[in-house]
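A common beginner's mistake is to predict each chain separately and then try to dock the pieces by hand. The better habit, illustrated here, is to supply every component at once so that their relative placement is modeled jointly.
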Amino acid sequence: MNLARRRPWTNAFSTEALCTRILERHRDSIRVQKPRLAVANLARIIGATLTLSNKQGFHATTLRQLAEASGLSMGGLYTYIDSKPRLLSMILDEVAATTTEVLTAPPDDVRDDAHKHLDWIIATHIRMSEAMQPWFVFAFMEAKSFPPAERQRAIDMEAMTEKIIADVLRQGVASGAFTIDHVKLTASLIKPLLQDWYVKRAKYRKRGTSIDGYIDGVGNLLSAALSNGNRTNGRTSARARARPKQMAHP
Amino acid sequence: MNLARRRPWTNAFSTEALCTRILERHRDSIRVQKPRLAVANLARIIGATLTLSNKQGFHATTLRQLAEASGLSMGGLYTYIDSKPRLLSMILDEVAATTTEVLTAPPDDVRDDAHKHLDWIIATHIRMSEAMQPWFVFAFMEAKSFPPAERQRAIDMEAMTEKIIADVLRQGVASGAFTIDHVKLTASLIKPLLQDWYVKRAKYRKRGTSIDGYIDGVGNLLSAALSNGNRTNGRTSARARARPKQMAHP
DNA sequence: ATTTTCTGAGAGAGCGCTCGCTCGTTTTTC
DNA sequence: GAAAAACGAGCGAGCGCTCTCTCAGAAAAT
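With all components supplied together, the output reads:
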């Protein structure tokens, strides 16, 4: 089927490519000298980490399982990582770096059209999270449960993505392309729409939803919601204040 | 300030109320006889479980920490639970049961107006997740990492919520209230909007977003997106197919 | 070309420690 | 004083991590 021919995204976000960058960033703590060998083994270690952690959680994944799954010994493992938490930072750092790099470099023909720019962000974020799915799931699920430094990094990354979206929305409001009451809140609501694709990937796969279909779904929902002056028609406070007087029965 | 006066939601979803139901459901495995005592200690155990697990993960939470935090001893703990995984099922079961009960019982004056019904689901789900925030966070974050039975239960619960939403959307399309291309996909996209409130509660708290503001934000976004015939104007496949030819650089 | 030396990658048993869980004993309750 | 509840030292298993050892193959010496 020759699926692999000319698929730059899949290749640029392959485990090997990402591990090459990880090796560069962590040369001092990785004791193996030969780069080819180091990248190959690092890729197997990190691949195993992602697979096992996304199944059972990082904390529940033992170094013995990791050794077994990556075809190394306990000792061999420790020529690549100097502690288990360090393995976590390696992965988190790489996700953060790649995400930032990709999202902050929109193509020129998109920058000054808010509609196109928002569409580009949606498509790019979703496709990137598809190509790096285990990495994104790992970062999302494990970020909360580890050292303060990494935790803060995850929060910052979330804030950055949101700011990028908010900036585009503001630009669109200024140019008349969008009509939005609360830009920051709206930007916050767009993020989970992008995240759902990888957080609940299994659900969409089982249901047969294609990535193009999902991107269109999010894009259409948002352009319908933001495009025209569908103003808050007095129902606002009604909705907010209408608390059920009674609940089911609990 | 007398905040507690007449707050039925807060009371009905209090740890005590929920633990009373848990006790009923697990009478056979809880060896303490006196109900008042059992509920009180169960509440402290489960409260501690939620607090600690949401900070560091359920797996990383040890029974010694749990004993300390709930004011019991190791042995004391084991008169209430017969294993650590069982503690997880207790919590998951209770969240599932309560959610199902509440969402499947909309008030009569809402049933036959799709707009009002959707607004009711949004407000109810968000308020319930606010009142039971630690429980919802726990269920969301830990569901993936434990036994197949509980895992399936979480998937089923997600599917149920989605089905309820999809039914309302379909009803709205039939009555002309909504215009929606893909009902199932749209229903899938609404869920993460509801979940974001509790998954990222800290972010919204720090930012000063009120629950009413959030409910309005989601409600307005959706009613703008679904209400009028903002049809797919030929840009659909453009968006989907427009893959970046080149990426940032990685 | 053959032998010797050196070296970096990997192996895997074992260390100290903490985990979930048990059980004989003590305290509390009625 | 009997029954119910709580206690907490202790068990074996399994954790992250270390350390000594092996050995292929490159480099140097013959």
